[in-house]
Amino acid sequence: MYSQYYAFKLKAIELRRAGKTYGDIKRLLGKPIPKSTLSNWFRNIHLTEFQQGQINKRVHTNIQKAQTKAWLVNKAKRERYIQEVRNRVSHLPNELRKKDTAKIALAMLYLGEGGKTRKGSLMFGNADRFVIQLFLSLLRHCYDIDETKFRCTVQCRADQNTKQLKRFWSRTTKIPRAQFYKARIDPRTNGRPSRNPDYKGVCRIDYFSADIFHELDQIVQAIYMGL
Q1: Which of 193, 196, 227, 206 is nearest to 153 (CA)?
Q2: Is the pLDDT confidence value at 188 over 70?
């Protein structure tokens, strides 16, 4: 019995001197050896700089593998969760086919991101193309829009190419570049290079309709009074 234990111990020591970590040794020996036992076996082992370097390298590799595995597990868990949420709300876009419901969504969006001072027109600006497209999709769905009444202004940094930005926002909004005002450059950015290459500036949309402005405003007021 002792000879088996001694042979087992010698094998563990041999593996340690070969640069194996505690985890490697337990896996190779196929035994759940307590860390305290291994520490006791290895207390008199003097590793060379190369051996210690091998162990440190293995530890680092194992940590990276564990982190990658944990990241993949968490990613899969989050993807399942997001899919569950997506399934819960998948029916809601059908509700927006009802214009009254879509107008409520548009009014709420405008309340958060739209201009409130100019009563004769809508003014809506954002740097997120999705938000801009959502606003325009709802606006075009809810109302009989005169496309010639749109005007756009790109607000950007000093080192950005305004022609490229206009082309980008024209494709995004489906508003002709002829209806874009001259780009407005933030003077505070002169001499300060942009850090985000994906930043496309802010697209400000003006639509000249006092009637739509007041209707959206009254929708918000009606909802507030009805709560």
Answers
A1: 206
A2: yes
Domain spans of the chain, in order of start = 2-86, 94-226
pLDDT band at 227 (very low <50, low <70, confident <90, very high): confident
The whole-number pLDDT of residue 15 equals: 78
Left if phi > 0, otherwise alpha if psi is -120 to 50, otherwise beta: which for 148?
alpha
Contact indicator for 125, 173 with CB cutoff of 8 Å: no
User: Could you say which DSSP state residue 114 is in?
Assistant: B
Listed in sequence order, the residues at least 6 apart from 159 whose beta carbon sits closer than 8 Å to its beta carbon are: 189, 192, 193, 194
User: Which of 172, 104, 98, 103 lies closest to 143 in space, CA to CA?
Assistant: 103
Q: How many of the other CB atoms lie within 10 Å of CB of 85?
A: 9
The CA distance from 115 to 176, in Å, is 22
pLDDT (tens digit per residue) in 44-62: 777 777 777 777 887 788 8
Q: Please, is 9 exposed, middle or buried when counting C-beta atoms within 10 Å of its C-beta (0-12, 13-18, 19+)?
A: middle
Give CA–CA dist 176/53, Å, rounded: 64
Is 194 buried (19+), middle (13-18) or exposed (0-12) by CB count in 10 A?
middle
